[in-house]
Amino acid sequence: DVKNRQVKAKQVTFHRKKNIQYYEISAKSNYNFEKPFLYLARKLAGDHNLHFVESPPSAPPEVHIDLAAQQQQEAELVAAASQPLLDDDDDTFE
């Protein structure tokens, strides 16, 4: 998934402008697929210690992510998150 990425880390800014939680996920490799659901469940329950019990096995990943490529992508996200935001007319979603 990382090799065929369509949206680059520096392009992912909407969540920062709107102060929304964001997770990098991949359905093809099962990477972080549960994190948005856990975040939402914790918010709805008002319990930040809530955790999921063991889930049933998911389908095997269609692709395997290279650990080095994954770490590089995460580093790019951290670097992109530290950059100042430009006003690019996202106000249409308010």
TrEMBL record:
Pfam hit, one: Ras
GO biological process: protein import into nucleus; ribosomal subunit export from nucleus
Cited InterPro entries: P-loop_NTPase, Ran_GTPase, Small_GTPase
GO cellular component: cytoplasm; nucleus
Alphabetized UniProt keyword annotations: GTP-binding, Nucleotide-binding, Protein transport, Transport
GO molecular function, a single term: GTPase activity
Origin: domain of life: Eukaryota
Membrane-spanning segments: none
SUPFAM superfamilies the record matches: P-loop containing nucleoside triphosphate hydrolases (SSF52540)
Functional summary from the UniProt entry: GTP-binding protein involved in nucleocytoplasmic transport. Required for the import of protein into the nucleus and also for RNA export. Involved in chromatin condensation and control of cell cycle.
PANTHER family in the cross-refs: GTP-BINDING NUCLEAR PROTEIN RAN-3, RAN GTPASE
Record-given protein name: GTP-binding protein Ran4
Source species: Prunus salicina (Japanese plum)
Taxonomic lineage of the native organism: Eukaryota, Viridiplantae, Streptophyta, Embryophyta, Tracheophyta
